[in-house]
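Q: Two folds, back to back.
A: First:
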Amino acid sequence: QVQLAESGGGLVQAGGSLRLSCAVSGRTFSSAAMGWFRQAPGKEREFVAAMRWQGGDTYYSDSVKGRFTISRDNAKSTLYLQMNSVKPEDTAVYYCAAASYWSSFYYTSRNTYNTWGQGTQVTVSS
């Protein structure tokens, strides 16, 4: 069983940067991929970024491509999301998630991920 715990959220001005962390504990070798999702008030939870564990390939939504970077530190068992040039529309609760199996077709789907963190709030002021 994998446990996930996000941190690093907060209030940031538009154009600024923030780095989210996701501490991974438990059976980390059982995850095939990890990702970040976000959910704004009144909206569906949406895909932000993902990293396939084998090979380290990364994937991004069009809305964050070129601004956000997903990375990992194996020694610290931590997944990161570096958020640059943030915009007010990036305001949301950000969730870290782990998938037991990789899907090239469905990696953007919430249903692909079977373990979730509790979320961390990111608020971008204009």
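A: Second:
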Amino acid sequence: QVQLVESGGGLVQAGGSLRLDCAASGRTFSRFHMGWFRQAPGKEREFVAGLSWGGGTTHYADSVRGRFTISRDGAWNTVYLQMNNLKPEDTAVYYCAASPTWGPNGNSWSHQHVYDYWGQGTQVTVSS
């Protein structure tokens, strides 16, 4: 059974920081690309950040670039999302996801359909 479990969400004031963790179990995710998505109330789920399986390539949504950092541990079991200078508009449920390949051309990191495994989500609330 494959599982992705997010943790680290919570309530923080604007300008503050949080780190989200995504723990993987059930199989080896060392060859999977990883992504973070988020869904705000009343909005569709959107791409936040992506990390290639080798760790050498990262992608970010324009709204978080320069503030968020995606990374993974050396054992390839945990993926992190470090979020700095948080804004009220970052309030959402954050999901991690794993993809065996970012589409046929390897460039669909922001497309939800290429991700086969998803966590249950963790709430992040940023107060103004």
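Q: And?
A: The CA atoms of residues 91 and 107 lie 27 Å apart.
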